[in-house]
Design brief:
With 245 residues, the protein is α+β, with helices and mostly antiparallel strands. Helix content is 25%, strand content 48%. The chain contains 4 helices and 14 strands. A 7-stranded antiparallel beta sheet has the order 6-5-4-3-2-1-14. A 7-stranded antiparallel beta sheet has the order 7-8-9-10-11-12-13. The chain starts with a helix and ends with a strand.
Length: 245
Amino acid sequence: MKFFKQIILFCFVVTMLLSCSNNDAQFIINKAIEVSGGSFIDSSSINFNFRDKHYIAKRNKGDYLYGRLITNSNDSILDILTNSGFERLINDDFVDIPDSMAVKYSSSVNSVHYFSVLPYGLNDSAVIKKYLGEVVIKNKSYHKIKITFKQQGGGEDFEDEFVYWIDNKSFKVDYLAYSYAEDDGVGLRFREAYNERYIKGIRFVDYINFKPLAKNVRLLSLDSLYIVKGLKELSRINLEQVKVD
């Protein structure tokens, strides 16, 4: 009987620790969204340019319209993603898109808008948060939080995994990393935020995009590799001409 009581007590303690960890992660994400202007993002119109394309996002307390405008010498292509689905206009005329391509275009449009206002969106119902403890990067202490997604509502790339490093004083996201499926395995990226600016209460940053130099690297170890210069810069992810209404 005593043995069974010890097992029950042990299970109770483990459950409580896991619960506290999840509560910590939720509190930290809430604070990170708050200091980044989440309440302003809830009802906003945001325009920006990214890699020769123009993007617009209109949000109104759960309703959204994400747009991407591509122009060249011959055509104007406008992709629109809303709560109702995806549509494409070429030279102001709606065109039929096969379902497989609509999924691909939707994911592409959503991804840019998703990254543009992080950590906004991390309280979506499909998001699973796990607190991993505190780490030190460049003499600053960060909360390390892992993000995964439920299949239901998690989108086409629900198996992707993210890690966020959130300053334990300012609650700003200074670093993030993610894993994603590639044809020959799993790809890894680590991003360092820079060029912080607030526009009408909303925090925007650009990113230095890194990949690991070594193979067979784990997502959770990318911060350690960053510290010892085990990452290679791939690109800069810059939002240009950002406007907020």
